[in-house]
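Incident log, structure service

09:12 report received: a user says their structure output differs between two submissions of the same chain.
09:20 pulled the input from the user's history:
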Amino acid sequence: MSESDQRHITRDSLFVLAALRLAGHDQTYRVKVRNLSAGGLMAEGDLRVARGNQLSLELRNVGWVDGTVAWVQDTRFGIAFDEEIDPLVVRGNAATPHGEGFVPLRPIAAVAQANHGALRKV
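09:34 re-ran on a clean worker, output below:
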């Protein structure tokens, strides 16, 4: 598949944090995932990467995924995965073992009801 063909693959905009480790290095960096598809993602972070760098990325609910830097622009860069993933799994609720640390949020209707239907305009 050519590079221009890959640009038409469906990708979801989202914002999740991920751990990133460059191949051959022990240091782990925290990056922001801005969009995601089965074949790759766009990340943003304060680290220097170059096109062709191999790396591993720990994605929520998926674990460590290997990939290669496809492009770089300022603090944003694209990563092409070595193997496809299911992006819907990453979008799902963060997995917590045995429910530890899980804090349920109240639905917006419950908040409005508690405030007698008054919602603040944003």
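09:41 both user submissions now match this output. Likely a transient worker issue. Closing.
09:42 reviewer note: The longest strand covers residues 12-22. The chain has one domain: 3-114.
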